Model the fold of this input.
Amino acid sequence: MVAEKKIFSLRLFLNLGCENKMRLEELINTHREFLNPTDLTIWKYIFNHRKKAGQMSVHELAKECAVSSATLVRFAKKIGLRGYSELRAAINFEKSATTNRKSNALAGLKNFYAQTADNLLNRDYGNANKLLHGAKRIFAFSSGYVQDNVVQEMKRIFLEHKIFIYQIVGPGELDSIIDSLDEDDLFIFVSLSGESPVVLEFAERLKLKSVPSISITQLSDNTLASLSTVNLYISPARFQIYGENEDGAQFFTLIPFFILVEIWYLKYRIYAEEEKNKS
Done:
């Protein structure tokens, strides 16, 4: 299991077409169960001092984190990297994912959509497709208005391939179905932050019952991703329409949620056809 996670992590580090800041957070999500309090202290320092940490030697960073150099190297290996040099390279490759302040917000939005599509097309959906293909029943739960629309679109598009997704609405319905779920079912969560208390409580209960789950969240260090069997990530963006400070008009786009759903659907259709040809 640990070896499989390390292979998966290296593939993420080498192949993901998005900001490395978020790659590191994805690695933390994938390996959180193997991280101890000292590891999380190291991660907290890197998260809060990315620019500074990327310029430090292994000894300097270890001193700042109040750990030994060997502990820092072990942390890098625990999240699937080969050592400190690869960890520092990951930190230094980071690009800002904050507000896009280009004067032409429309041009920035156009570029963002193109980059998002390219990034999501290059993702590996194999594990998600395998869970979807083998599920007896598929349920989905969303935490938020836009996320609810994402589930509605997911239901509509996958129905074209005769895949029925049952949408669960509200905590009451979650409580009513938990006892009937087993390892042959699949639960899909759509959450921007991945920190909704209702979602996290239910995800923990699913894990205890060995019910597989797929989380679709913002690419960040979030608890839901660490609780899920498979994680699919999106990277939203904020655009400055006018003004050079935070008081200027801004536009926040969550369109990547919908782009991901469409690409996942197409990737699944290809997967399903390949599986059909094998039989």
Q: What stands out?
A: The chain has a mean pLDDT of 84.
